[in-house]
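$ run holo --ligand "2'-deoxycytidine-5'-monophosphate" --emit tokens
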Amino acid sequence: MATLTDDQKSSLTSGTGIPVDGPVVVTLDGPAGTGKSTVARLLACELGLDFLDTGAMYRAAAAIAVDHNIALTDVDAVLEKVIDADLHFDWTTDPPAILAWMKQLNQRIREPDVTKTVSQIAAIGKLREHMVRKQRLIGQQHPRLVTEGRDQGSIVFPDADVKFYLDADPAVRARRRREQMIESGMNAPSEDELLHDILLRDSRDSTRKDGPLICPDDAIRIDTSPITIGEVVALLAKTVREILASRKA
Ligand code: DC
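-- output --
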């Protein structure tokens, strides 16, 4: 059988339009309700990459604090409990399910009390350091990755191959959030209430000291307000393919 050189191997594509081997990291950051999670999951599927939802990690930490009656101001107790839970993902499910103490947390992390507290949890500097370390470790174990959050391109994977920043009009984001909740069978508050929560969370996420939500200078910014999720995925997939192909040229 003929042996291929490293150069020949890396120029092969797997039908996904990107090189079949070697690390590929694509980051998606942006505020809540831009369709980021759905887009990241579909993009990962389209490109044959793994998918990391870092919001699920902060949500899991919030669920742990709430369910163990730990005051959010008791930073050391929150951190100790989260470390004890040994948060990790089951990569055999799609999307990967998050586990604490070896048990799937399922929809608990999406419930309203968790959603309300999560931005306070995500502002804890020591907890963020722990999560960043875990996410980089996941990046080593899954080097072909689409990862989404708030700080993936700015802090966690500053050398990512392609960085996107998704944004959308807050009113559109509130409407999308409500539709999403109804679809997953949850009791959805009014759009006005959701808009209020979204603006509060945006302000907390972007003004915190550690790992604030920012658009990295080298990220491609996309306003998803006027386009469908399918169109966003197609646009992102095309962009990733073009950027990776141009590097090989
Ligand atoms: O994307 P999401 O709504 O599931 O995120 C939940 C919360 O976690 C949100 O308040 C922002 C925060 N978060 C963060 O601070 N850093 C990340 N990398 C991901 C999420």
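-- notes --
The chain has a mean pLDDT of 91.
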